[in-house]
Amino acid sequence: MYSDTASELRSIRKTMIVLGILLLFVIGSINNNETEEVEDEDYAEVTTNVQNQLVPLGNGYFGLYSNLDETDSDPEMKIYYYDEKENKLVLKKEEDLDTVEISE
Hints:
42% of the residues lie in helices and 27% in strands. The chain has two helices and four strands. By secondary structure, the chain is α+β, with helices and mostly antiparallel strands. Strand 1 (54-58) and strand 2 form a beta hairpin.
């Protein structure tokens, strides 16, 4: 009876070793996939720039400034509408900020 138990334990141990080796190969192949990491500073800079140029106008409309930093072009605002039902973004119009009159 002792020899049957010992042989059974030996076969279980061999099976566990084989499964462990296979698991190491699988985990190693998953970790070897090359991924490009984006630095947090670059992401924060882009996010800040977009937030500074985005203006909520209400009812699904928002404005996006462009050409603010360029000295040789006129600044303008593109007005977009987001349609929730169709999940689409629609450009409604473009306004030149130099020609817009501000009402008080």
